[in-house]
Amino acid sequence: MEMFCYQCQEAAKGTGCEKIGVCGKDPQLAIMQDMLIFVAKGVSVYADQLVKLGQKNEAADHFVWDALFTTITNANFDYEAVRAKVMKGFDLRNTLRDKLEKQEVDLTAIKFESALWQAKNDDEIDQKALTVGVLATADEDVRSLRELVIYGLKGMAAYGMHALHLGFMDDEIINFTYKALVAVQNDELSAEELTSLVLETGSFGVKVMALLDKAHNETYGSPVMTKVNLGVGGRPGILISGHDLKDIEQLLEQSKDSGVDIYTHSEMLPAHYYPKLKQYKHLYGNYGNAWWKQNEEFETFNGPILFTTNCIVPPRRSSTYDDRVYTTGSSGFTGFPHIEPNPETGKKDFSQIIAHAKKCKAPEAIEEGEIIGGFAHNQVIQLADQVVDAVKSGAISQFYVMGGCDGRMPSRSYYTDFAEALPKDAVILTAGCAKYRYNKLPLGDINGIPRVLDAGQCNDSYSLVMIALKLKEVFGLEDINDLPIAYNIAWYEQKAVIVLLALLSLGVKNIHLGPTLPAFLSPNVADVLVQNFGIAPIGTVEEDIEKFMELINA
Ligand code: FSO
Ligand code: SF4
After folding, report:
1. How many Å lie between the centroid of ligand 2 and the Cα of residue 137?
2. Are 170 and 267 found together in one domain?
3. How far is the CA of 433 from the centre of ligand 1 (A)?
């Protein structure tokens, strides 16, 4: 076995990638990512000690969240960049240890390898990296629970970083990250203790999504119902992908008088819904679909592309766009220029990309028309009377939360078929790139309420929960599970893991998860989720609709 990774839905053979990642990650990169998690655990050991002394360390906060985010599926393929982060992490870990020793803190009880191991030379790092991955935990169930926590933390870190870029931080969340990264190294924790850590991770998932929601709403205004153009204009364009709104804001501001238009791709689509971003006239439209279609869509876009987060698909050998892709933040790819913020001001300079765009042809149209979105909690709550009336009159009989991710597996056509087969009085609540499976279908509306209500990015699943809680209040119900809402979630990578854990921590039951259950759930851990939360895999569209109807009518 040259590597082992089973963190995403596309894990080879449904068990794990052992030779090369289905995502394109090679063994050398995979083991260096394992090493980055190892060093993040070591930094966390000492940062956790500092937290106990009431001392904050911003360098550790940034490092640990960035390390977790960097290792999310298809975020960073740049081996050298990942290795540089590992080296930086060891230095930081040793600095934190020195800091504690200077304060005469007794560290003799710390026995974790991640905290103590020192490389004598550079080669040792590569050797060590081979031994610190997922399989270092021998027991299948303990490994499963530990990884479930770590994947949840990766999602949490991604959302936390976006909030941090907008100046929003909640120390409780980063402090929990440290605590959890220490706990997953503790051989003395029982399976029950690890299971409660999983749920605690979910409750911090709710907190981080609430923080990011606040950061987005306070910075850019609350999303409003918006029609987004799917066509193209005649000027050159820049395509921006990923989830970081601070990045798109800076790009919009710097390009506003440049003669270049800005288009969103995949998870950047919801940028159009924010009042402060939509006021930029050159935020032209959304080009293309979910992340996995980029190999074709980037060809015809003609202009430069900026990745602010995952999901990067390695360009094909025959690609004609690989010399016009840029990355920023925790994302990276060998050979793609990476835009770093100015260390003094924190601002990013996108002038290189804007200059590049000016030399390019305008995008080729691949679609036309418009889609509608912007149904985050504030907008839906403004429509609450209309929605409640529609439910009371029976015009709307049920809601389906269908958030999450899209992916390349052909079996994901299930989600298109499911949306089409739903009764005409059902409304879909969505968030995340999963929506591209059905957001362009002519599903119509119910008394003016669109049948697909898109709240935004995957982190805006928080909004869907807010909407559910509001409906629970309006209908005077005790339990969120008494609402006529069913959950049919599609997952791909680790942000969907934190969304799922967040829903579980809020007590949501009977979630169907697809297109396949995670490879990292051991049979025993999967059983705990089935028994306690009614989690189920998807079946056929007909069977599933029938099962959901039974649940709703129970
Ligand atoms: Fe999708 Fe990719 Fe948002 Fe993910 S673009 S798959 S869960 O990164 O983060 O929904
Ligand atoms: Fe395989 Fe997914 Fe890991 Fe990539 S992230 S190596 S596809 S399990």
Report:
1. 18
2. no
3. 6
